[in-house]
């Protein structure tokens, strides 16, 4: 059974144009060597026309305009704010091998519909399906607007991410796709594209070898081996023995069989080494995640302090403004009083004159 894939990554405003150029294949030079540039024209979008980004508008400008329309606050967006979350949606190679091109498109249209209904079609600037790589998959951007706020942390908190992993596959199953969710509570982590590509060839070779084993692939054909024969002293008389050669339950390997067996043993050892490398990589990633979570807590604390200072500043400004208004009124009143006194002083003099 195949599993649903839905992985998210966060991006700041300064990063989205480069992301857009990659997703839309606006360059022929890619770090990912698995991209078949000749097939890039076959990539397509599943976003309805009324929500599509215009060709003459950059992704950055499109996102800025949507944020301006969707936010209730008039304050400027922080430079380090997350303005886009990109989801990579798909499944494994075996799943798509069983589908026609039309069925593949229907699958991604269903996937897009689930996200559009949940987070708003107006907040999804693109959903591009890539068929120019080994396995079809969809890159989909979601602007994290929620209740008039721009906040990826509030919209995609831990609970929501768990809900996505649980509810998204169930929705696909309800649409009659033969797909399952990943193991609940699994400690497995997703590797980055670069990390995966480093170990992918080795893992593929091990997988092919294991598949041969499961299919009954014989490492050694025992029927073709010569049995081991050893000399044995057999008593033939009262004081007489004779040497006879008897077969044991052992077999003699040919040089070719020995080399194949040695290669298999080395392969098993390589699998163990590869597994240890993966676990070491996982340990480092876990440590990095813990460090990032600690930094996020620190930033949250600083953000809360800044919000407190901002409230204090606004309170002080309101107080000063009120004081200034009172002082201005007092000054105006004093000026009027002086004028009246001057006129009162001058009037009697005019009469006497």
List the helices and strands and how they pair.
Blueprint: E1 2-3, E2 5-12, H1 16-23, E3 44-45, H2 59-70, E4 82-90, H3 93-97, H4 101-119, E5 126-130, E6 137-142, E7 145-146, E8 149-150, H5 152-155, H6 158-174, E9 179-180, H7 193-214, E10 226-235, E11 241-252, H8 255-352
Parallel strand pairs: 1-9
Antiparallel strand pairs: 2-4, 3-5, 4-6, 5-6, 7-8, 10-11
Describe the structure in your own words.
With 353 residues, the chain is an alpha+beta fold. The chain contains 8 helices and 11 strands. A 5-stranded antiparallel sheet has the order 2-4-6-5-3. The chain has a two-stranded parallel sheet with strand order 1-9. A hairpin with a 5-residue loop joins strand 10 (226-235) and strand 11 (241-252). The termini are far apart. The mean pLDDT is 82.
Features:
11 strands, 17% strand, 52% helix, 353 residues, alpha+beta
The average pLDDT value, as a whole number, equals: 82
Give the strand tally.
11
Report the uncertain regions. Answer: none
Shape: elongated
The number of helical segments is 8
| Arrangement of strands in the largest sheet | 2-4-6-5-3
CA radius of gyration:
37 Å
Order of helices and strands: EEHEHEHHEEEEHHEHEEH
The biggest sheet, with number of strands, parallel, antiparallel or mixed sense and barrel status, is: 5 strands, antiparallel
Proportion in β-strands:
15-25%
Cα-to-Cα separation, first versus last residue: 114 Å
Provide the structure class.
alpha+beta
- Specify the helix fraction band: 40-55%
Give a quick summary of the entry:
It is built from 8 helices and 11 strands.
